[in-house]
Amino acid sequence: MVDTRTGAGAPTPVPLPSDARKLAPGTPAYRRAITALFAAGVAVFLLLYVTQGLLPEISGELRITPAEASLTVSATTAAIAIALLPLSALSEKYGRTRVMTASVFSASVVGLALPFVTDTGTFVALRALQGVALAGLPATAMAYLAEEVSPAAVSSAIGLYLAGNSIGGMSSRFVAGLVAQWSNWRVSLGVLGGIALLCAVVFRLTVPKAANFRPARVNPGAVARTVRGHLRNPLLLRLYFLGALFMVVFGAVFTVLGYRLSAPPFGLPEGVIGAFFLIYLVGTVTSTYIGRLAERFGRRTALYGGMVLASAGVLVTIADSVVAIVAGLVLVTAGFFTGHVIASSSVSSNAATGRAQASAVYLTIYYIGNSVGGTLAAAAYHRAGWTGVVVVCLASMGAAALIAVRRI
Fold first, then answer.
1. Residue 9 in domain
2. How many structural domains does the chain have?
3. What is the SS3 assignment for the chain?
């Protein structure tokens, strides 16, 4: 039996790795792999959303609108979307761990430079550059797990990796708000850059050497053919758009949240607003268990459950009540991570060839959804208040429900 999953279009078949060489749950190597990817996931999402919880302060100091300030998030996610495919191709030649290491360290260095930038254009440009650097991890992490972890444990391993993403995303907003309340948003950026660098060191010290990776010659034409093949696969295409639509909702709600909570009738300070992002812990718990629930009840049922949770959560947040907003955010977060875990793990499982590129295409469309959701919601909030954000979110979940009607 042979494996043609080079992802770079190499014509020479590669022998399938023996399952005996794959990492099994409970073994020291498996624990090291999970620890490494968890730490890297924390670092990436610390840096990816480092400005999201600080947008009102950035708007005030730089004298820009919410939509303009949201570019400090959207520029990063858009850059990730652009860089994912090239970096996934490079990982086919140079190795998953090498690309992931370069990604987390270079992004951390850029993060440490951000507090010293005073020009808005330069700040957004550096955030875009940071997005290119960050792309190396999501472009390769799920392919690494699919290759190195035993097949029965891949969904759980990806769920744990995504749990690290949620911890990073939560810590980014919470720590940023807390530090900003006692100092300023620039100090917050420096603190988070330092934490990300420590996570990068943990990743490098713990990640096991890839045992099942086979390098392949990078052929741009072959990569393009592989990507076209994925985009012509109806099942993969549906999964790609499902992930993006869930991300539109999540990006919309959390990008605009700070503006709503800092304005009347709430008027909350940065530290208190940052505490709302502790709700990301819901995503951590959801990510670790949703794979098992999907195996029991089916992927489509789990996806519909995520849509219902996210939609209900958005509707609950309409009330001008802190309790209602907290409850709504819990539901939105649980719904988002349900959809994301199911869609992303299904892509890895259903891509017969070019797994790295399959995951990269998923994440490219996913991050485009994030950029569109954040910027569109900021503009909608500027024009119609929180009601505009709710409309954007419900329209996205309605589109997702129509897509999920087909086989998933």
1. no
2. 1
3. CEECCCCCCCCCCEECCCHHHCECCCCHHHHHHHHHHHHHHHHHHHHHCCCHHHHHHHHHHHCCCHHHHCHHHHHHHHHHHHHHHHHHHHHHHHCHHHHHHHHHHHHHHHHHHHHHCCCHHHHHHHHHHHHHHHCHHHHHHHHHHHHHECHHHHHHHHHHHHHHHHHHHHHHHHHHHHHHHHCCHHHHHHHHHHHHHHHHHHHHHHCCCCCCCCCCCCCHHHHHHHHHHHHCCHHHHHHHHHHHHHHHHHHHHHHHHHHHHHCCCCCCCHHHHHHHHHHHHHHHHHHHHHHHHHHHHCHHHHHHHHHHHHHHHHHHCCCCCHHHHHHHHHHHHHHHHHHHHHHHHHHHHHCCCCHHHHHHHHHHHHHHHHHHHHHHHHHHHHHHCHHHHHHHHHHHHHHHHHHHCCCC
